[in-house]
Amino acid sequence: MIPAVRAIARAAMAARPVPLADVQARAELLARYDHSYLVPVDVFAAFAAELTDQRRPGGPFAALCIDGRRWFRYHSTYYDTPDLRCYHDHRQGRRLRYKIRERLYEDTGERQFEIKLKGRRGETVKHRQPLLPGDTPLGHAPRGFLSSVLGRAYGIEAPTGLGLSIETDYQRTTLVADGQRITCDAALACRDLETGRTVRADDGLVLVETKTTGHLTEADRLLHGYGLRAAEFTKYCGALAALRPELTASHWRRAVRTVFPAEAGSSSEAGPPSGEIGPSDAGSSSEAGFSSGA
């Protein structure tokens, strides 16, 4: 069993469960500030224990729970132009930058077409539209949605020539308190859809993202107390930099080496991430899919 998956499962099972509707009401945060941390499993265990402690002032963080399940499988497919405009706009820190992806909630097959923008104050703003059975991600409706979002938000036209870039798989637990949401991801596996090359994250690393309408949260301060600082890492840009080491990655390189220490830039056999926990491992019940807005 992958240690990072075990760690997020234990954190979820230690927390009070809350349904999706409560998460959306308390901390949907489609417009928010994000901070990413690369957290070793031993530090993550202590961090999660503090957040879910019943004695926490204001009450403990709760865990998203649907049909008895508290960690979920995600599959994302990212799109970019042939010259990787989305990747390079983020690398260069351009003000008008965005990512385009399809997200599949593997436990039910629900699909969302999503565009993530950077706002004027550096916040992340997510726009999403469900994909119905038979819809193609770059079909007429999603392209119209993309054009509408980029036109309204940035006053620019949608790029032409969009195609498949990479795909990612991972497992996630979501912890929530009023106005705060923390996503805890494990077993990240990434595949380059052009070359077939794959990379997998360190089994002992949990990718933690804090999300809030403000800047620093209690979770950020706790992680700082463990000697961790926010990392320059996103799944799309970090994975693409690892999969294509010839790309300029500048300030991402250190984080990429931490997340993919053995495989960055290597080619390996493709396959789904291992280490998924079943009901006998930590008390989860039947599978369910959802759309958490993360």
Q: Which features does this protein show?
A:
single chain; globular; 9 helices; 11 strands; eight-stranded antiparallel beta barrel; 28% helix; Hypothetical Protein Pfu-838710-001; VTC_domain; VTC_sf; disordered C terminus; alpha+beta; 294 residues
What integer is the average pLDDT?
Answer: 85
Structural class: alpha+beta
Indicate how many domains the architecture comprises. 1
Radius of gyration: 18 Å
Tally the helices: what do you get?
A: 9
Strand content: 25-35%
**Topology as a string of helices (H) and strands (E):** HEHEHEEHEEEHEEEEHHHH
Strand order of the largest sheet: 2-7-6-5-4-8-9-11
Assign a percent range to the helix content. 25-40%
How many distinct beta strands? 11
For CATH, the homologous superfamily is named as: Hypothetical Protein Pfu-838710-001
First-to-last CA distance: 25 Å
CATH 2nd-level architecture: Beta Barrel
CATH class: Mainly Beta
The largest sheet is:
8 strands, antiparallel, barrel
Shape label: globular
Oligomer: single chain
Poorly predicted runs are 264-294
Q: What is the CATH T-level topology?
A: Hypothetical Protein Pfu-838710-001
InterPro entries: VTC_domain (IPR018966), VTC_sf (IPR042267)
Region (Disordered): 262-294
Domain VTC: 68-131
Protein name: Polyphosphate polymerase domain-containing protein
